[in-house]
Specification:
Rossmann fold, 4 strands, alpha/beta
Length: 187
């Protein structure tokens, strides 16, 4: 028995072409400025939401994980498109009146994830986060965007076991970030 037809007229177009850009030829030149190739035209677009920032030490490794996620998406026939998510640090906010903004930020994170997914008609989502404030927000945003034929994955990326050299002064705090009760410095 023969497999399904793979000609261009029988192959379903990715979501972002079907629903948002029936006249895709006017949009594709813009994407080419981002480095898209002609062969990317009919690949599914997968949003890679990332809470990387320089404020939260537990997020410093997320940029590398996002690159790996995009390589995996590419290897499996998709195109990974990374976008940033707001990610507050309650440890930082505790020291000032900004703390009152930390918990409500969870809803902003959820809204941001959902808005990016819907505005760009991603075919799927991969979301990376590693903080007790941003994890729920990212998950809430993901639940608002998946369903039907759109799939999503949340990767709770634990903080690195040891901080990068410039953050060595924070080494005693890492057991707390990792949830260890002994609070001893990692070796």
């Amino acid at each position: 028995m023969e497999g399904p037809c793979s000609c261009s007229s029988c192959t379903p177009k990715p979501r972002w072409q079907q629903e948002s850009h029936p006249d895709f030829d006017t949009v594709f030149p813009m994407l080419r400025q981002d480095g898209f190739l002609e062969k990317d035209r009919n690949r599914p677009f997968i949003g890679v939401g990332n809470t990387w920032n320089e404020i939260v030490p537990g997020h410093l490794h997320l940029r590398d994980l996002a690159e790996q996620a995009k390589l995996g998406i590419r290897a499996n026939g998709g195109v990974g498109l990374e976008f940033g998510c707001v990610a507050p640090c309650d440890g930082f906010g505790n020291a000032n009146p900004g703390y009152r903004y930390i918990l409500p930020m969870r809803d902003n994170i959820a809204d941001g994830v959902e808005l990016m997914a819907q505005a760009h008609h991603f075919d799927g989502m991969v979301l990376l986060s590693s903080c007790d404030k941003s994890n729920p927000g990212v998950t809430m945003g993901l639940t608002g965007t998946v369903g039907g034929d759109r799939r999503g994955h949340f990767v709770q990326a634990a903080p690195p076991l040891t901080p990068p050299a410039p953050l060595a002064w924070m080494r005693p705090l890492f057991p707390l970030c990792l949830g260890r009760q002994d609070r001893k410095e990692p070796r």
